[in-house]
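Design a sequence for this backbone.
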């Protein structure tokens, strides 16, 4: 059962998050299959400071599972 955990800078509305989750599930269904009810999506907000100190370093640490590298540095 696919689960997507999205880490996001704070400031997006609940409606934006709902739309993002919907689009991710629709795209995943098209690419890898499974029915809609097989998917789950969580979205976690971070401040820019938290992103720099906690999120960004963990992105770079897990190169073995990173399929799209960030185009920015911190």
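Sequence:
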């Amino acid at each position: 059962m696919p689960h997507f955990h999205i880490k996001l800078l704070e400031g997006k509305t609940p409606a934006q998050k709902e739309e993002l989750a919907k689009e991710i599930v629709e795209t995943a269904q098209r690419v890898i299959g499974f029915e809609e009810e097989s998917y789950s999506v969580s979205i976690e907000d971070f401040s820019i400071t938290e992103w720099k100190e906690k999120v960004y370093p963990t992105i770079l640490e897990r190169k073995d599972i990173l399929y799209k590298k960030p185009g920015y540095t911190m």
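The beta strands are 3-9, 40-46.
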